[in-house]
Each structure stands twice: as C-alpha cells, then as structure tokens.
Design goal:
CATH class: Mainly Alpha
Oligomer: single chain
Distance between the termini: 47 Å
Number of helices: 6
Largest sheet: 2 strands, antiparallel
Number of domains: 1
CATH topology: Rhomboid-like fold
Mean pLDDT: 89
Order of helices and strands: HEHHEHHH
Low-confidence stretches: none
CATH superfamily: Rhomboid-like
Strand order of the largest sheet: 1-2
CATH architecture: Up-down Bundle
Length: 183
C-alpha cells in the first residue's frame, strides 16, 4: 500500500509538471472511448488538496483489505470489482462530458467491503475490523448523496455498491457443519 500511495503522489507530481494534462485522462461521462479510463482514474487527482484528502483513507483502508489470509488475492478481487462498479456509476450517472478522477470511489468501496465482510465472515477478527472501520470511516458514507458541487457522489455511490458486491461475491464459504444436508 505504501508503493501504491507513492504512485498516487508521483502521478499528481507529474500532472503538475505537465500542467494538468493527466486530468483529461479521467472518466468522461457518456463517452464510449473513455470507458478504459475506469481502470486508471483512481490514480488521478485534481490537485494536491484532492490527493491529500484521499491519501490516509486510501492507505489505511487498502491495508486493512490487504492484511490477513489470502490478502493479495482478496485485495485484488475486491479492488477490481469496486473500481469497475464505481467507474461505471461515474460514467453512467454523471452529466455528459463530466470528467471524474480520484481514489474516493475505491475508498468508499473498501469501507463498505470491510464492514460487510466482517458480518459475512462470521469471524471475530473480521468483525472487529468492521466495527473499527465503521467508527473511523462510517461518516464518509454520507458522501454517496449529492451534497457538494464538484464532488462525485456518483463514484462514491458506485464504490459503495461495488464494495457490497465484492463482499458478497468474495464471502467465505460456510464450513461444512453449517451447510444444510442435501438428499
């Protein structure tokens, strides 16, 4: 997560050097040629204040998804699902021509993923992480509502839905003793 966080900063530094040119590579709503931008838009930010607001939650929540058994596989799967769902929501729900970029859709997805994962895992460690995440970052979930101009509630909402979807798809298989017998 340290390396990815450094990549976010390097990308923004290069964007400043190239006078904001990278910003044009965000997700451009309703433009079919922009759909691939869904994959790299979380790496792009509209200035250092945008990046600073995303840095700590990106690092902490990404790390919490990463730690534990099957960490890298779980992190890759959840992050891919969240990135695609968040990006599609920004692409589809934003006004045509609007450009969306930033890691906040991924952050919203990780919050919802971690909270639901704790419930679905029926594991005390995962549940404790869920409670800690809910206490520490649960307030950000208000960002799925259209309350501020210039903030992509569409990407936030898509990220939250993507996190729920990822937690459901990647939920742990129930132990044999918990499964109903098939006759």
């Amino acid at each position: 997560m340290g390396g990815l966080t450094a990549l976010l900063w390097l990308t923004e530094i290069l964007d400043v050097v190239f006078m904001g040119w990278f910003d044009s590579f965000g997700i451009r709503a309703w433009d079919l040629t922009s759909l691939p931008a869904i994959l790299w838009a979380p790496l792009l930010h509209f200035g250092f204040s945008h990046l600073i607001s995303n840095t700590l939650p990106f690092f902490v929540l990404g790390w919490l998804v990463l730690v534990g058994r099957n960490g890298m596989r779980r992190w890759l799967g959840a992050s891919a699902i969240i990135t695609v769902v968040s990006g599609l929501a920004a692409w589809f729900l934003s006004a045509p021509g609007t450009i969306t970029a930033g890691a906040s859709g991924l952050i919203f997805g990780w919050v919802t993923y971690l909270v639901l994962r704790g419930v679905l895992a029926r594991d005390i460690r995962a549940l404790v992480i869920s409670v800690v995440v809910l206490i520490g970052y649960g307030g950000v979930l208000w960002g799925v509502l259209p309350t501020q101009t210039g903030i992509s509630w569409q990407a936030h909402l898509g990220g939250a839905v993507g996190g729920l979807l990822a937690a459901w798809i990647m939920r742990p298989e129930r132990p044999a003793r918990d499964r109903p017998l098939v006759r």
